[in-house]
Write a structure and sequence with these properties.
With 152 residues, the chain is mainly alpha-helical. 97% of the residues lie in helices and 0% in strands. The chain has one helix and no strands. The radius of gyration is 63 Å and the shape is rod-shaped. The termini are far apart.
Length: 152
């Protein structure tokens, strides 16, 4: 048995560094697996946090979109209402303008007729004045002729 022991010992001496190396590699593997597990856990927590932030952002963006669309629709309705009111006012102004235009044309006709009548009266008065002026002139000529004849 003594012969076996040195040979066994020699075999154990050869196996020990291999076992130590395997134990060290196994320890490193366990440690790296722990680090990987810790990193995966932290990554999962960060991913969950990012997912929550993304959900919150998506909800906020959806709410903002709905709010903006509602406000846009309200503003569009307000603008359309004001446009209708302005258009109605233009129609009223056009109607008033047409009325004023019609009144102006009517007054213009009346003024034109009045001017024509006035012109006729003036012509008649001028003719009458000319006749009145002609009568004294003829009379003056007759008087002068009579005076001239007597003075001769």
């Amino acid at each position: 048995m003594t012969l076996d022991k040195p040979h066994r010992r020699n075999g154990l001496d050869q196996i020990e560094p291999i076992l130590a190396d395997v134990a060290q590699k196994t320890d490193r593997l366990i440690e790296s697996n722990g680090q990987i597990f810790q990193l995966a856990t932290e990554t999962q927590a960060q991913v969950q946090k990012v997912v929550q932030q993304a959900d919150s952002t998506a909800r906020g963006l959806a709410n903002l979109t709905v709010s903006v669309n509602q406000r846009f629709d309200q503003l569009t309705a307000d603008v359309n209402h004001q446009f209708v009111q302005i258009n109605h006012r233009f129609v009223e102004v056009d109607h008033r303008f047409d009325q004023q235009q019609s009144q102006f044309e009517s007054l213009r006709g009346e003024v034109q007729l009045g001017l024509e009548q006035l012109d006729t009266k003036i012509d008649s008065n001028v003719d009458g004045l000319q006749e009145e002026i002609k009568f004294p002139k003829d009379t003056q000529i007759e008087i002068l002729t009579i005076l001239k004849d007597r003075l001769k």
